Amino acid sequence: MKKQVVLKDKIYRLKGMTAPLSYILNSRNTKRKPLLHFDGSRNRALRYASNQASCFQDEQDDNSILEPIVFEDGMLFVPKTNPLLQEFLSYHPSNGETFVELDEEKDATEEVDVLDAQLEAQLQARDLPIDMLETIGRIALSLNVDKLSTAELKRDIRLFARNSPIDFLDTLNDPMLKLQSLSAKCLSEGLLMFKNKSKDIYYNLPGNKKKLISIPFGESPVHVLSSFFQSNDGVEVMTMLEAKLQE
After folding, report:
1. Residue 66 is part of which domain span?
2. pLDDT digits over 128-156, tens only?
3. What is the dihedral of CA 101, 104, 105, 109, to 10 degrees?
């Protein structure tokens, strides 16, 4: 059984921060301004004619009555009694680029998703232990956490969670986070050091000043060092450096 289409009034708005007092949307296909819709097999010319049953020009007769489509103050109201115009606008190439249909339910759903993410991010930020606060501050925000008080660090992390909840949650779930924090800490506390204009990383331990790895051009030293720690050779080095940091 074919599902019955429920007709409803629709509102469209022009995209952008500002809108003209009136804007006339292209409503028919011309050589200078093509107006085509690809139906899966071919491009078909569109034309809005209020006395026709179709918005496709090849299905219209020669008595078409053309009417302008005008956005007033950036808005266009199309009642449910004009399904032809609604269909025409759904096929229009400018739909999604020049104008969009207002969907209050969809907009509300998206706003709820954002609010949920903000709440989840702030709750997790509030309950993070100090070591994770330092890790996120060091890696995600490039903070010098050694010079910040606990209160300052908590504030900065919570602001990050509030203002960029998705980025915060993604950072929190990044499996490389702890490795990157360890890498940055080894460099900041001098267990490792740069040489040769930051092209190489060397040990900086009593009795061990050997070269550890080279940094490929354009790569992040912290990322390269973290990747090394994941290798078979790097696991032993990582364990040793972690022990040194605890001394």
Report:
1. 10-102
2. 888 788 888 888 888 888 889 999 999 99
3. 100
